[in-house]
Specification:
27% of the residues lie in helices and 31% in strands. The protein has 14 helices and 24 strands. It has a six-stranded antiparallel barrel with strand order 1-2-3-6-5-4. Strands 7-8-9-12-11-10 form a six-stranded antiparallel beta barrel. The termini are far apart.
């Protein structure tokens, strides 16, 4: 083939290629101009352009900074008192005569809170205010208030506090049940004391239990967290997790980190739990906790093979049913597999905890179980830790059947004690059942020193609110002139 023919063929190929490219552009252009294509194009643009500004602006004023304070005696005083040469030079009397400095207040914690009502009710984490003697709340407009504690619930790590103020900005309550995996959320709080900080992320998981991430730390209580990748750090605890509509969907409470700072995963208590806990605290002073009364383990492939379970791949295998419990009344038996409560999937520990945390004793639920590879719906009336459907009122220790009186300084001195309370009279009740008699002096309950009837009530409340199966007061004390004595008071 001669050179002119080859050149002619190459030119033809190039011309065809140029025509293909040129004609392709007008065709695409025409497709974009059609109404149907325009609608699709706008849909794509909308899905990519996420606007956080509206949600951020509507929520920053509804989140507060919380500082906790506690008194601290002068460190120098303790150094002098522990100096081995102090008594040698100044004599034993001088040690007792050293003037005591007034306790000094120091900041012990920093966190965030969410305004729930215009008249000053604020939700936060229990661990933010735990042990505080004074709470200082700072609003986004820099106004500062002292706050009082309305009630706490260590089991869910929720606390309700109040400031005396009006017309506060409230973040509307949203429904965490409607959150979807992959949905955008904002975390609003005060990390490291940097007020009004907003970070964004997506919902990574729901009903997340993180105890397995922190082995050796024991149970944290009720865990059914919303997991996100929104960055939170120390100071964010108690802050708001909101959706793009500016609605509260969770209270930020924890991060998983080996350094103490954010490393990719954060966790929030869902509003499905927050709403119920706050309502109980406002109405009763304590949480009305419902119990099903079963011991269980999560279904695994090994258990499924062992028990020939083919009707479900996930669920809670009942190991034991407590007598006189809601579960026994409903007819649940060992080896039943719980798969749903009120038609909501309940196939892991976190989901069961969240479901129970929504309810009060006395409420009815429908439990779906798999038995012999067939589904059954069973009706149950939930009960409290005492096994009945009654209300628990904070501070009510009538079940103990006793009169508690404070000790005088002389009485404490005669026993060489710095704390203690006297059981002035024993009536019918738990104390009498345990063998405690009039005149017994209580030093501590469950290793907590007590100095007043209120101290005894607080310990009692914390025990009966606990979701552990054993509700026992371990009491250390003694009768006047006697030896130390120990009692175990069963509160169940």
């Amino acid at each position: 083939m001669n050179k002119s023919i080859i050149n002619t063929l190459v030119a033809a190929v190039l011309l065809a290629a140029s025509i293909t490219v040129v004609t392709a552009l007008p065709l695409k252009s025409q497709a974009v101009d059609t109404p149907q294509a325009t609608e699709k194009s706008e849909t794509v643009v909308k899905s990519q352009a996420v606007d956080f500004t509206s949600a951020a602006e509507s929520t920053v004023n509804g989140v507060v900074s919380i500082k906790s304070y506690a008194s601290q005696s002068s460190r120098q005083q303790y150094q002098d008192m522990n100096d081995p040469f102090f008594e040698f030079f100044f004599g034993p009397q001088a040690r007792r005569q050293q003037p005591r400095e007034e306790p000094k207040e120091r900041q012990t914690g920093l966190g965030s809170g969410v305004i729930l009502s215009a008249d000053g009710y604020i939700a936060t984490n229990n661990h933010v205010i735990d042990g505080a003697q004074r709470l200082e709340v700072t609003l986004n407009d820099n106004r500062t208030f002292d706050a009082s504690v309305v009630g706490t619930d260590p089991t869910t790590d929720i606390a309700l506090i109040k400031i005396e103020a009006d017309d506060l900005h409230v973040i509307p309550m949203g429904d965490s049940d409607n959150l979807k995996i992959g949905e955008w959320v904002l975390a609003v709080g005060n990390p490291f004391g940097l007020t009004s900080t907003v970070t964004a992320g997506i919902v990574s998981a729901k009903a997340r239990n993180i105890s397995n991430l922190t082995p050796g730390q024991g149970r944290r209580g009720i865990e059914s967290y919303i997991q996100t990748d929104a960055a939170i750090n120390p100071g964010n605890s108690g802050g708001a997790l909101v959706n793009l509509d500016g609605q509260l969907v969770g209270i930020n409470t924890a991060i998983f980190s080996q350094t103490g700072n954010y490393s990719g995963s954060s966790f929030a208590i869902p509003t499905s739990i927050v709403k119920k806990v706050v309502k109980d605290i406002k109405e009763f002073g304590t949480v009305q906790r419902a119990f099903l009364g079963v011991e269980f383990r999560e279904l695994t492939p090994a258990i499924a093979r062992e028990k020939n379970i083919t009707a479900t791949n996930a669920g809670l295998v009942v190991v034991n049913v407590q007598p006189n419990s809601a579960a026994s009344e409903a007819g649940i038996i060992a080896d039943d597999i719980i798969v749903a409560i009120d038609n909501a999937a309940t196939t892991n520990t976190a989901q069961l905890q969240e479901s129970m945390a929504r309810h009060r004793p006395g409420e009815k639920i429908v439990i779906t179980v798999v038995r012999d590879n067939k589904r059954h719906n069973l009706s149950a009336t939930l009960r409290n830790s005492r096994g009945d459907t009654g209300v628990t009122v904070v501070g009510d220790v009538s079940a103990l059947g006793c009169v508690i009186k404070p000790m005088t300084d002389d009485e404490l001195k005669s026993m060489n004690r710095q704390s203690g309370v006297k059981v002035a009279k024993v009536n019918d009740g738990k104390f009498k059942d345990a063998g405690i008699r009039d005149g017994f002096v209580i030093f501590d309950i469950n290793n907590i020193n007590v100095n007043s009837a209120d101290d005894v009530k607080q310990v009692y409340d914390s025990i009966v609110q606990s979701d552990e199966y054993d509700h026992v007061m371990f009491i250390t004390g003694r009768y006047p002139g006697g030896r130390k004595q120990y009692y175990a008071v069963d509160l169940d």
